[in-house]
Amino acid sequence: MIIKNSEDCxxxxxxxxxxxSLGFSMAGLKPIAGIEINRDACETYRHNIGSPxxxxxxxxxxxxxxxxxxxxxSPFVIIxxxxxxxxxxxxNRQANDPRNKLIFSYLNIVETLKPxxxxxxxxxxVLTSGSGxxxxxxxxxxxxxxxxxxxxxVNFAGYGLPQTRKRVxxxxxxxxxxxxxxxxxxxxxxxxxxxxxxxxxxxTFDEATAGLGMASSSKDTLVGYESETPSNRYDSxxxxxxxxxxxxxxxxxxxxxxxVKFSQLKCGxxxxxxxxxxxxxSFKRRANRRVKDxxxxxxxxxxxxxxxxxxxxxxxxxxxxxxxxxxxxxxxDRALTLRECARIQSFPDCFEFHGNSASQAQQIGNAxxxxxxxxxxxxxxxxxxxFGSSRSDTQHHVSPRLLGFQLTEASGMxxxxxxxxxxxxKLVQTEMDFS
Length: 435
Prior knowledge:
Elements: E1 10-13, H1 19-26, E2 33-36, H2 39-49, E3 53-55, H3 63-69, E4 77-80, H4 102-113, E5 117-122, H5 133-144, E6 148-155, E7 166-173, E8 188-189, E9 194-195, H6 205-209, E10 223-224, H7 233-239, E11 246-247, H8 256-263, H9 281-286, E12 308-309, H10 323-326, E13 327-328, H11 338-344, H12 357-366, H13 370-384, H14 391-394, E14 402-406, H15 415-434
Parallel strand pairs: 1-2, 1-4, 2-3, 4-5, 6-14, 12-13
Antiparallel strand pairs: 5-7, 6-7, 8-9, 10-11
Helix pairs in contact: 1-13, 5-15
């Protein structure tokens, strides 16, 4: 593909199934290409996004090859979220995990291609990895190569996603625009994670999955919608472009033994609320593990819930690669279907995932929700001013710096997060002193 104008050039790194790219496409900025190492995810990307996805190890790509993808022009924006398993609290957190180095591979590509903007997405564990040195070092390097950046932990439910999903975003530009993140549009509540700000509640689990027919017990069955007319706005949004009126991946493999187990759980209850004889063996091994600040990183990860029954009238919990095994439907004695997980991640019903069931679950759980990507894409277009807005012509242009950061909305911080906060404060002050 030959790029005629860098103003509409978007490159997706660590593309996964294409959630980030789909959201940007929805905003009118379809990426020219994605780069992803996983074969199944690449196939999913190509089939749904309709642009090339290069199956490659980011670290092996030569600068000239990268420049050829963008027609030797500087892209408008580079988007991507390096693999997060090294930081995630869902598993052991390893400061020296080789996957963590991929965040600096992302930075190197930004330095090579010099996009006007970039958006970097990762899990909240990145804030305290390596005693906070990873995020502080990354921020310093983005500034060094000429970018003004903001770092913020956001809960995507605040923008209307039907799940409380906390992620860290670093957004930067090299044209000196002082900017802020888009304002939240919704309140949210999924249990412990909640925020009441006078705005409407983000779609609940029931609203997000409304309209889907009864889940099948057969993997290859096409399931028709519950009714021809969408049940609500989110249901209508999910049905867009699905001409077949049927959905795939709406099946479950719950056994009779599991059905008996699930039937004993009330909404909000987890494995520990069941009699011990019904616990999974892996849960028994981990149930009494204690995790606190100061615990060696290789032993971190948090006590597991094993399985958990969701609330239908609240927002869903964070969808992960294990959600279709561990999250129990609020009203039926079964685990969630892959299609329900995809809907809660805001993938439309016409979106098809390639690979086996485990691969599809991982692709869904790892994705940047398309709805969120579209909101931030539209915000960049507005802020930048190159796509019709006059704002950028009148803004005060600043030198490369850390414009600001928000690590939590809570009243207190853990010692690890407080250390990161102090180091980022020093970075803000340093950049101000040099201005």
